[in-house]
């Protein structure tokens, strides 16, 4: 439930997938080479749930639930790019999911009401075809397993910084420095797009989003 996440998923959507220009996804041409994923911060309690560990934290157990919806949608979405649009929509509505506050909703029932509006809206808008499957995953054992695995991957990479970025397994140097304290959507997006284009090698020459003029224009 973070504002920085909102900013940088917008960068993935607007600068990377659309090349930082007024291009359609098809015109930008890079989405066919992307297989995007996000890992999340959190802890698992002695009862093997995030909820018990999140009691008393800034975003509380509500964060655990939204993380599972994101992770289950990643597994069940028809493509990674559909999933990015879904996550973007969910984060663009974080104020609703936090009931207008900065931490979390005052009660679980208020959060559940907010989620019952935001989740189906974002699923329909972005092409998540089986909302019931995502919902069942997020509330069941599969969602908890995906969550634990995601948190473990985040912990294993903590030495790279707060929100490291990897392209083809390679760490994108300095991207984390413009993520948290002074978030810069355009600069971060340009940096990650340039790394993605570099990883394509000669193929990048036929990808419009990888045109140097577009990458430099997004600075």
Please give a handful of descriptors for the protein shown.
11 helices, single chain, two-stranded antiparallel sheet, mainly alpha, 56% helix, 219 residues
Largest pleated sheet: 2 strands, antiparallel
Query: What is the first-to-last residue Cα distance?
Result: 27 Å
Report the uncertain regions: none
Query: Helical element count?
Result: 11
Structural class: mainly alpha
Q: What pattern of helices and strands is seen along the backbone? A: HHHHHHHHHEEHH
What is the percentage of strand-forming residues?
under 5%
**Can you give the mean pLDDT?**
91
> Share of helix among residues?
55-70%
Q: Which word captures the global form?
A: globular
Strand line-up of the largest beta sheet: 1-2
Strand segment tally: 2
Estimated radius of gyration? 17 Å
